[in-house]
Amino acid sequence: MGCATALALSGKGAGEIVVLERAVPGAEASSAAAGILGAQLEAREPADLDAFRRARDGYRAWAEELRAETGIDVGYRQSGALDVAFDEGAEPALRDRVAAQRRAGLVAEVLDGRGARAVEPTLSDCAVCAAHFPEEAQVDPPALLRALVAAVARRPRVTVRSGVTVRGLLVEGDRCVGARVDDGELRADATVLAAGSWSSLVPGVPRDLPEVKPIRGQLVQLDERPPRVRTIVFGDHGYVVPRGDGRVVCGSTMEDVGFRREVTAAGLASILAKALALVPSLGEAQVGPAWSSFRPQATRPLVGASPLPGLFLATGHHRNGILLARETGERVAEVLLHS
């Protein structure tokens, strides 16, 4: 969120921009995500659907822009997605959801088990039906973050300061005028809070903002040779994301455990059981790395102006931070430059 906002501000002609990062940019949830651009998978409220679709559909051009600027391929692929049901009782709700999306102008259809396996031959024979969203896409988050950091570094008026801890907001009167950091004060005309799961812990953040809390998600990578899975498969609180080169990212847990970053035996067992239920052939895949990080959960994404003048928000996106990164950066930049 910080890098995306810095890029948007730079592109709109803002002055000097400083990105503060206590480690290195993208070291937390951004690089650890699965990278699903799941506008139709994730939009449960009608109000979300248009924004999510706009965010997803803008990624193709953004990926090309980042490649042109940095030479880095962010792994954008329109791989499509299946949202699978194993119980006939789930079919009416699936059909209602697809019908609502079709009325909104999106491409979606309900397939029976045979039709779903025609789209994704590795899908379990136990699948009763599935919603097919052929326009869903994905990116490779570590590659995306490398591209964003490289793009930021190339902008002449943008500085990235890594290894800097923000000790609190700098507030004078009723206005935010910058941040307190390890070596003193950094004064600014505008400050953007993009601290993810740590946003509510920054001293000086208005208390009347919704709390942003960490929700741990564990993931594991499987490696299949040759690559077989070609479609994102979602179902029963689990998912399988094929990168196209044999890597398959499987996730994820949803754990309210504070800032405990462990990868647990129970977490991995749950993820693998759900992945194998969706795609049984992954039982032959080699187990690769496993990792975890924290989704920044709030009652709603916090984007735009805050109750404290001079402070702007780009946080609280929970499961949809990668999807909404560019849209968030553009929106925050517009609000900030016209406030």
Q: What is the radius of gyration?
A: 21 Å
H-E string = HEHEHHHEHEHEEHEEEEEEEEEHEEH
The overall pLDDT, averaged over residues, is: 95
DSSP strand content: 25-35%
Task: Characterize the biggest β-sheet.
Answer: 10 strands, mixed
> First CA to last CA: what distance?
20 Å
Tell me the number of helical segments per DSSP (H or I, 4 or more residues long). Answer: 10
Arrangement of strands in the largest sheet: 4-5-3-13-14-15-12-16-17-11
Structural class: alpha+beta
User: Based on CA inertia axes, which overall geometry fits?
Assistant: globular
Low-confidence stretches: none
DSSP summary, beta strand count:
17
Q: In percent, how helical is the residue content?
A: 25-40%
Ordered list of secondary-structure elements with their pairings:
Blueprint: H1 2-11, E1 17-21, H2 29-32, E2 36-37, H3 39-42, H4 46-57, H5 59-70, E3 81-85, H6 91-103, E4 109-112, H7 113-119, E5 129-133, E6 137-138, H8 141-154, E7 158-162, E8 166-172, E9 175-181, E10 184-187, E11 191-193, E12 213-223, E13 232-235, E14 238-242, E15 247-251, H9 265-278, E16 286-305, E17 311-317, H10 321-337
Parallel strand pairs: 1-7, 3-13, 11-17
Antiparallel strand pairs: 2-6, 3-5, 4-5, 8-9, 9-10, 12-15, 12-16, 13-14, 14-15, 16-17
Helix pairs in contact: 1-8, 1-10, 4-10, 5-8
